[in-house]
Design goal:
The chain is of the alpha/beta class. Helices cover 29% and strands 22% of the residues. The strands form 3 sheets. An 8-stranded mixed sheet has the order 1-2-4-3-5-6-7-8, with helices on both faces. The protein has a 5-stranded mixed sheet with strand order 10-9-15-12-13. α6 links the parallel β7 and β8. The N and C termini lie far apart (49 Å). 36% of the residues are buried.
Amino acid sequence: MNSIRGSFRHSKGYVLDYEVTRPEVVSSPYLHILYHGFSLVERHVPPVFARKQWAAADGAVCLSLSDPIVRQTPDSACGWFLLGEEEFFPRVLELRNSLVEEWGLDGTIWHGLSSGGYAALKYCARAGGEDLAFVVSPHNDPTILPQWEREAVPFLDLPGMAEPAVITDVLRGWNSPDSARLLYAVIPENDAYFALHHLRPVMESLDFHESVRAVRLRDGRGHGFISNTDYDSQLREAVRLWQERLARKGISHDVKVILPKSLAHYAGNESTIMVASGTFAQVMGQIQERFPHLRKRLTSESGALLPFVSAYLGEDGVRNPETRIPARSSLLIVTAVAGG
């Protein structure tokens, strides 16, 4: 696991800390942005990154963010990310875009729990992409929360503190007919206050559109608690629904594989094959699973590309099985032709 920590500095001196983690083998084709929510520990030392309750985080490129307020005072542990947002958010977007491009990722999933869910959903909407917001017990209007007076009001006079936006206002246009983005919200079983006062207004404002899905767990847990198993299973369902919306809107995460006539013969004479993006090994595996007669003509028993077979992503040759083949790209496979 490769980990890089960095920070952005605000013109008023505030600091937003971030951490980028990338595994040796990337199993998720998406960038995952994680906002921390209310910290349950009695004492925390900045930076405070998201509690990675998602068990599969070790297989994904993740960008974790720490609210600048935790560097200003130990008395505010919530992650609304209001301090300096007018300067910090554009930089987060710039970093997001560079990570997606650098690693050939297909999109972004914004994670957050409680106040972190508020921040994740707000910035997912403001980012304006075809993204997925996966949030647990998100706030709608932070100012109606019991902890707002204690956690936020004493610091609202800090220069550069943003006004607390109401999510139902931010989400205007979320369910646009041309959009494929998705809000997937999870509520623990005993979290009735948030279900009624925060999630319900959001659902009603979007008229229970297909671009929003809410799930209430039967887990016996309250606000701020969700098991790794539930987090993982609900995220997988959210990604499935999101991918369906993308497909219906004609937004493809597929890769075009181009075969010469000598190989197309073993693929039902199909010279162009569409497969899901992923690593080079995953793309090759999909081709060979669909057309078994191609298997021994492309790779050895160990799965390595045969010496006389070459693959090109643009002008770059590809042989490393972990090379990412990004969505909407073309992979050309050629074989050496003997002559004499």
